[in-house]
Design brief:
The structure is a single chain. This protein has three helices and seven strands; from the N terminus they run αβββαββαββ. The N and C termini lie far apart (31 Å). Helix content is 16%, strand content 43%. By secondary structure, it is an alpha+beta fold. Strands 3-6-7-5-4 form a five-stranded mixed sheet.
């Protein structure tokens, strides 16, 4: 297999959604934040669930919904939820993954 040089060295952040693994381009990842499970659940109950980081708002979105795989299944015994902050211009999001 031959890949263009720029694709061959692209760094990525590997995430799991359901039983599938995906690579997010590392330059698009702004950061990772952790919320307590209680705070996460409270934010999901609002009309526009979001988290603020670095002076910007990131809307909470299930990565699986973008991929047609359904929402993430978070273990009930987890005390914290990790969110991957992705810069996508006006559509920046805090991605929820498994």
């Amino acid at each position: 297999m031959r890949l263009p040089y720029t694709l061959a060295i692209t760094q990525a952040f590997i995430v799991q959604v359901g039983s599938e693994m995906f690579a997010l381009p590392l330059p698009a990842v702004e950061g990772i934040v952790r919320l307590s499970r209680k705070e996460f659940d409270e934010r999901l109950q609002t009309d526009e669930p979001a988290v603020e980081y670095g002076g910007r708002n990131y809307r909470l979105r299930h990565l699986g919904l973008y991929l047609g795989l359904g929402p993430a299944t978070l273990p009930a015994d987890e005390d914290q939820v990790a969110l991957i902050l992705v810069d996508a211009g006006e559509s920046s999001a805090a991605l929820i993954v498994d």
